[in-house]
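hi! just following up on the protien thing from before. the input was this:
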Amino acid sequence: MIEPSKLNIFFHPHDRLRVTVGDDRSYPTVKPVWASPIKFPGQYLALLDAKEQEIATVKDPRDLPPASLEAVKAELKRRYLTATILSVDKAKVEFGATYWHVTTERGEKDFVTQSLQENAQWMGERHLLLIDVDGNRFEIPNIDDLDLHSRELLDSIV
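and the predicted 3d structure came back as:
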């Protein structure tokens, strides 16, 4: 692992994330990804180059210099869409795929999940995370806050 303080992560141009490692080397394109987002949320941030090769892994991103941390947060927010589900309007299982029509804080959304054993993760006793086929994340912070129809649909599927 590279010492986080030696990483300078920034946007240049304004939409491309770059990283410089000390005075040693620079990468014109960097992609931050969580190495184990379910098991270790907020830890083990991998920085990948344009060929998806690992540049560095940072155990705790809060150890990055403040400007680098802000750049990483902005890119992760763009990369990992997370919407909060307010209601489950329809849900149907066909051939191992689940088709969802939900209302989120961003409006109505249709999405598909494969294999709910892998893509429906309980983050707590009542906190559910769904990951669609495109890698987008949909969360229900507390299923008890959903209306009766939504809870019944979830109970029949998850």
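The chain has a mean pLDDT of 92.
The CA atoms of residues 1 and 29 lie 19 Å apart.
cheers
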